[in-house]
Specification:
CobE/GbiG_C, alpha/beta, Nucleotidyltransferase, domain 5, Cobalamin biosynthesis protein, CbiG_hydrolase, 5 strands
C-alpha cells in the first residue's frame, strides 16, 4: 500500500473523546496501510460531532476540513459492519464506514462532473458541507445525498481504539479514487 496518495477517513467517536485518542486511532490505521497523514485527501464524520473539541483540534492540527454528514444520509449507506448500538446513539447504524464511503462518492461525482480532456485523472476532494465555524448543518441545506462508493472502496472497515479514559474512537479508511475508476462517464481509464 505504500505510495498511495488517495485515502479518505471516516471517523466516529464517543462524546468528549480526547484529541490524543482520535489522533492515535488514525495513526494506527494509516500505519496498517503503510501510509501517513500526507496520503489523506479528505476526512468525514457525522454532523453530531461538528462541535467536538477533538474534531476541531484534528482540523487545526492536521489541516483538513472535516465533511460532516447528517445521520439520515449515513443511515442510507450500505456498510459491512452496521451497529445497533451506534444507531441508538446517533440515528444511523454506521458513522465511520458510511462517512468514508459518502465522501469518496461525493469526490467521484465532483470528478465526473468536472472531467474534461484536460482535467487531471485524480478525483478532487469535495467541498466541505460544514466548515469549522459553520452554523448551518448540512441537514438544513438543500443538497442531495451523494452516491456512496461501494463497500469495496474500504481498505480498513473499522479500526477501533479505547483511550485511557475509556472513550472510544473508530476510523474507516477508503480509497478516494475507487469511484472514479468505476464511473465510465469520466472518459478516464485508471
Amino acid at each position: 500500500m505504500a505510495g498511495s496518495r488517495d485515502l479518505v477517513l471516516g471517523i466516529g467517536c464517543d462524546r468528549n473523546t480526547p484529541y490524543a485518542t482520535l489522533a492515535q486511532v488514525i495513526d494506527e490505521a494509516l500505519a496498517q496501510l503503510e501510509a501517513s497523514w500526507a496520503d489523506v485527501r479528505a476526512v468525514a464524520s457525522i454532523d453530531l460531532k461538528a462541535d467536538e473539541v477533538a474534531m476541531q483540534e484534528l482540523q487545526r492540527q492536521r489541516g483538513h476540513t472535516i465533511h460532516f454528514y447528517p445521520a439520515t444520509w449515513l443511515a442510507q449507506v450500505p456498510v459491512p459492519n452496521p451497529s445497533e448500538t451506534v444507531r441508538k446513539y446517533t440515528g444511523t447504524p454506521s458513522v465511520s464506514e458510511a462517512a468514508a464511503l459518502l465522501v469518496v462518492g461525493e469526490a467521484a461525482q465532483a470528478f465526473a462532473h468536472a472531467a474534461t480532456d484536460d482535467a487531471p485523472a485524480r478525483a478532487p476532494v469535495p467541498p466541505s458541507h460544514a466548515p469549522q465555524e459553520a452554523s448551518v448543518p448540512v441537514s438544513q441545506r438543500s443538497v442531495s445525498l451523494p452516491v456512496p462508493a461501494p463497500m469495496s472502496a474500504l481498505l480498513i472497515e473499522k479500526h477501533k481504539l479505547r483511550g485511557p479514559d475509556g472513550r472510544n474512537a473508530t476510523v474507516s479508511v477508503a480509497r478516494a479514487d475507487e469511484m472514479a475508476r468505476l464511473l465510465p462517464e469520466t472518459g478516464r481509464h485508471t
